[in-house]
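Good morning C.,

I know you're traveling, so I'll keep this short. The sequence:
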Amino acid sequence: MNPDRVKVFGLALLLVLTGCASRTPGDGPPRTGSVVPPHLPNDPIPRDEPRSRYGNGPIYEVFGKRYEVMPSNYGYSERGVASWYGKKFHGRPTSSQEPYDMYAMTAAHKTLPLPTFVEVRNLRNNKTVVVRVNDRGPFVNNRIIDLSYSAAIKLDMIGSGTSLVEVTAISFDKPAQTRPVRHDASRAQAAADRPGEGEEIYVQVGAFGDKNNARRRFSLLREHGIREAFVYEESGRSPTLYRVRIGPIADVGQYDQVVAKLERIGITETHLVTE
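The C-alpha cells, ready to paste straight into the viewer:
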C-alpha cells in the first residue's frame, strides 16, 4: 500500500513521485488530543486550473501495474468504492507535490488529470461533497477514489472506512477529445439517477436486447453460486431491455465478494445501479 516512490513514465522523462494507496497499518484519524478544526471546511469552489507539473504521467507504474492518465476529465462518472487516508500521510507530498492536508477537501484518483474537481456522492445516504483531486491512488482492488479525512467525515464513512459512491468530474474541458474517457453516465443522467429513500444498490453484469442472452448470463451466474442474480425486464422502453443484476448489495464487503466471484468466471465489466 502507499508506495513512497511511484514510477512515472512521461515522454522521454522518468518522473518519480509520491502517491497514496489508501489507508495502511498505522493510518487513521488524528491521535487523541490532536488539534482538530472547530468546524469542517467548506467544499472547494471548482475552477479551471492548469495541469500540475507533477503526477500527470501520461503513464506511470505502481506494484507492476501500468496506469494511463486520462487526456481529459470530460464526461467522467463512475460508481464504486471510496476509501480514505489520514494522519500517516498528513504533511507528506502528494503526487502533485502539494502537501497532503487531511483536514482539506481533497482526494486521490488513479487516472484523472491533476487537479480535477469531482463531486462524490455516498450511495447509501445520498450525502455529497466536492473535492479537489491532487494525488494518485488508491492502488487497491475495487477502490476508485481515496478521500481526505474531512471529506470522509462529511460523507459519514469514517466508521466503516469505505463506502459505495458515485464520482463525477466537474469539467471545464471541451467535449471534443482524441480518445474516450471512462464514464458510466453523463452528469445529467447521474443527477436523474440519484437514489431516494428506500432505494437499493445492485451490481449490473449485462444489458441485453435478446431475452435468451440475458437468460444465458443469468444461468452462468447461478451455476457459479451467485444466488442473488436476477433478470430485470425494462419493458417501459422499446425494444425491451433485459438487465442482469445481482443484489441488493448491503455493503462494501458484499460488493467485494460479488466482484471477486465475477472475476473468477471472467466477468470484469460491471456497473453499480440503484432502483
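Safe travels,
E.
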